Every structure is written in structure tokens, then in C-alpha cells.
């Protein structure tokens, strides 16, 4: 049994807002990402509710959202070179660059678009070009967490991760993660380099990655669930809406709270383009989810 990287913290409130839609008495609630607690991501500590940016484009509202997220204690932001055809990385670079040392910005590379859809390119020369391009767009000298976005079936994962390890040794990457991997691929990668995170699809409705999550728990690897809110399809979760109404919260909030409770290595990164939705997501950390209800949701 490993010592999980979760450290329970209850940070100070950073803002008071009114949830008129959720609480008919309009009771004031305090919102902060720190209230979700913290975990160790490699050699850094981050709050357990991050922000996904796959829909953010380079606009002032998007930059304002990012600034507000950091004000509210979000210190882990996830992106990828393929998101919005590089615009997500550019937005982060325009907003922060090297001026947000307390925020871990993670990006991904190795997924490519073609006329046939999305594919993968894990060749070392491609990954080197991808990392250099991400560095320029992010406006930084070093990427805090670089994740192999997808395993290339034509390239052994050892070769791809070996290229990332070389870039780490050169100082262009601080830490290495993986995305969309199996347990076997994760084990093979760990023989080549230290892997601090895995980002696989996982949410209340889609839990096919339980074996990967269990492996991450055993080895103190952070598990970052992408699509943590099932792309808005949570209505299919039996009893979720009824239970959320009983708690006085939204189904999305309850689904996020279930993820936080599900595993100490879990780091959800819900995405949004709305500051109000951002604050609603962060407020999920304050839900006191009972043990019976937690188990009922997981059935």
C-alpha cells in the first residue's frame, strides 16, 4: 500500500458569491480551489481542482477567465498544442508567459490532425519540433509538465518517451506525463523516464480506466480525468439529478465532488468559458458527500 500524494488542506476563502440558482435562500458561499485540497504532482504541489482549456481561444474574455481562475486559487491549467489549432497555448502565453511561477501549466503533444481525422506522431524529431513550438506559444523557457498526448502505434512508446526524457535533460521540460495510455504502456514508459501523471478519459459515467487509476494509486502517479463532466451528458447518471437537488447543488457539482472523493490521486480539470461556471465548479469542493450517497453514485 503506497502513501498517496494527497494532503488535505482547507485554504482561506478568496471570494464570496451568491448561488441564487442553487440556494433559494441565497446563502453566501466562499469559493477557492484550495478548498479541494492539494496533492503532489511530481516535485510540485497543486490544488486538486484544475482548469481545462480545450475550448479557449485567444480573446480578452478567455484571458479574463484565466486570470480569474488564478485569483480563485487554480494553480494547475491543462492545455495541448492541438487545442483550437494552437490558440489555447497562445492564449495562455499571452496571459501568463513567464509571469505566473506559482501556476503549473501543462501541455501535450503527439496528436496530429489529418484529412482522416486525428492521429498520432510519436517520432522523436516531431516531438522535438512540437516542444519547441509549444515553448514559443506559451512564452516560457521550460514546460512544467509535458504529456505525450497519444501513443503512436508506429513508434514504440519507449522511443517517444526517450525523446521527452532527452528534452527534460536539456531543460525544456520539467516533468513528463502520459495521456490515453494502458497499464502496459504506462509500465513500459516508466522504465525509460519518471512519469508523474496520466490523463485518461474518466467520469461518473465512463469508468473503463479503473485499472489505470488503480495502478496510479499504487505508484503515487496523479490521475487527470479528461471529460470529467461527461461532456454535459450527466443526465444519464441514474439518480444524480435527484441527489443533487437534495444536496442543493447542481448535478455537475456533485459529479465533480464524486471524482474528488473517488481517489486521492484524482485531479479533475473541468473546462469552461464562463466565469460563473468556473466558480460553480470550484464550489463543488465544499459539498459534504455522505458515504452512502458516494457509494450509490458509483454503483
Radius of gyration: 19 Å
Please state how the strands of the largest beta sheet are arranged side by side: 6-7-8-11-12-13-14
Q: Number of domains in the coordinates?
A: 1
Proportion of β residues?
15-25%
Distance between the termini: 24 Å
The CATH superfamily name is: NADP-dependent oxidoreductase domain
CATH level 1 name: Alpha Beta
Please report the number of helical segments.
Answer: 10
Largest sheet: 7 strands, parallel
Category from helices, strands and their pairing: alpha/beta
Helix content: 25-40%
Mean pLDDT: 89
CATH topology: TIM Barrel
The coarse overall form would be globular
Task: Kindly state the number of beta strands.
Answer: 14
CATH architecture: Alpha-Beta Barrel
Order of helices and strands: EEEEEEHEHEEEHEHEHEHEHHHH
Low confidence ranges:
1-28
Descriptive key words:
299 residues, alpha/beta, TIM Barrel, 7-stranded parallel β-sheet, 3-stranded antiparallel β-sheet, 10 helices, 14 strands, 20% strand
